[in-house]
Design goal:
alpha/beta, 40% helix, 321 residues, eight-stranded parallel β-barrel, 11 strands
């Protein structure tokens, strides 16, 4: 560990794990804490108000990680921005330009084909992982030249897939030998080890990082996660136009009926994944929150240091068995 396909990162990874990119949750504090603890930190560039703030965030995180390296002598895990490549993302070119100036080691593309951004990112030496939710899209991303695939499986929080993780991973491994990341249902170190055995190089952990002290999530959101379990997760297209795993109690608290949500059309980045646009929505829509099936594993609100230490212990125990 890491796998042979990730040897470039040497001993910088305490776990084969990515702190998953989460809209309005992943920020500077969470990313810096994850990376210095040996977990790849990923955040959506859409969490920033614009390219200027994205540049500020990257500069601040890089500064903190350099300070960590100077103080400890140990290089942090990579930072991994998540770039939304959907055609309705008017910020794509600006965000890409900022990333190219900073030269991140890894970038994840989502909500579309990675093809438009692959050449400039590859020219900058960046590893590009593509979110995919079907075998067809996985094959397309491989043909386009992606360096790895993030398999969005049933049970992932936020934007999700519908395929069983066991079936999805094995189907992809039948034609692809590159980096594979499992997204969906990773709640502890034992599940992370299972992803190893299944044939994955890395896995996402998102929901448990929502309930950390460093996340940008509302304290009510964190408490709701502690009080919820997998039965409280609702799969719906009502909020973004994409299949999304949402917390049913937050829908109820917003005065909406989870069993009678309004229909809506396709995703519009400017409307659905834009910080300023979200703030202009009626409050009851802003306070509807996402989570994955791993909500059952959230039992308390921890510091990232403690969450990673616990997960490392669980992972090592599972590997030893």
């Amino acid at each position: 560990m890491p796998s042979d396909r990730l040897q470039r990162f040497g001993d910088r990874l305490a776990l084969p794990l990515i702190a998953a990119p989460m809209f309005l949750v992943s920020g500077v504090e969470l990313m810096a804490a994850a990376c210095r603890n040996g977990v790849i930190g990923s955040f959506p560039t859409a969490n920033c108000r614009g390219a200027e703030q994205l540049d500020e965030w990257l500069t601040e995180i890089e500064t903190r990680l350099r300070r960590h390296e100077d103080e400890t002598g140990h290089k942090a895990a990579p930072l991994c921005p998540n770039l939304i490549v959907h055609r309705s993302n008017a910020r794509l070119e600006q965000d890409l330009a900022v990333l190219l100036r900073h030269g991140p080691e890894i970038v994840i593309t989502s909500v579309g084909s990675p093809a438009p951004v692959l050449k400039p990112l590859h020219d900058a030496g960046t590893l590009v992982l593509a979110d995919v939710a079907s075998i067809r899209h996985a094959k397309r991303a491989v043909e386009a030249g992606a360096d790895g695939l993030v398999l969005l499986t049933a049970g992932a929080g936020g934007q999700t897939g519908w395929l069983n993780p066991f079936a999805f991973v094995r189907a992809v491994r039948a034609f692809y030998d590159g980096v594979v990341v499992l997204a969906g249902g990773i709640s502890d170190g034992r599940a992370l080890h299972a992803a190893d055995v299944l044939g994955c190089d890395l896995a996402y952990m998102g929901t448990k990082f929502i309930a950390t002290r460093e996340s940008m999530a509302d304290d009510r959101y964190k408490r709701m996660l502690v009080e919820s379990n997998a039965d409280d997760i609702l799969l719906t297209t009502a909020f973004t136009g994409l299949q999304t795993s949402m917390l049913r109690p937050s829908i109820v608290a917003a005065g909406l009926d989870p069993d009678d949500l309004p229909a809506r059309g396709a995703i519009d980045i400017a409307e659905d994944i834009d910080v300023a646009a979200r703030e202009n929505r009626p409050k009851r829509w802003r306070d509807v929150w996402s989570a994955g099936h791993s909500a059952s594993g959230v039992t308390d609100v921890l510091a990232v240091d403690d969450l990673v230490a616990r997960t490392v212990a669980e992972y090592r125990q599972a590997c030893a068995r």
